Amino acid sequence: MSVKLLPDLGELAEGLGVTGIIGIILIPVFLPVIGGVSRPIAKAAIKSGIRIYERNKEALAQLGETWDDITAQAKAEYGEAKMKSAEPRET
Fold first, then answer.
1. Which of 1, 43, 47, 78 makes a 20 to 30 Å CA pair with 90?
2. pLDDT, tens digit, 9 for 90 and up, residues 54-84
């Protein structure tokens, strides 16, 4: 039993068909075109993300401050309740 390292070209041609073979041949032609088109689209998407972030940065900062205030109040109330429960009670 021998190990096949390379596929049989006849089997490969039958499996891919004419359109597959033409596609493989034309890949080097279309890759630069696709790259040239996708680069500006990617840059536009990144710019939009940065713009949205910049617009919402202040709102996010205010949300963070509000969250910190609520957390501090909850911790303070929890600490007060814990201290009250630890106080000795008169019987």
1. 78
2. 888 889 899 999 999 999 999 999 988 777 7
Distance CA 91, CA 81 (A): 20
Q: Is the pLDDT of residue 1 over 60?
A: no
> How far is the C-alpha of 53 from the C-alpha of 82, rounded, in Å?
41
Distance CA(70)–CA(82), nearest Å, equals 18
pLDDT value at residue 19? 73
Residues 6+ apart with CB under 8 A from 36: none
Helix (H) or strand (E) holding 37: helix 9-86
Angle ∠(55,57,58) on CA atoms, nearest 5: 95
DSSP 8: -
Residues 16/24, Cβ–Cβ less than 8 Å: yes
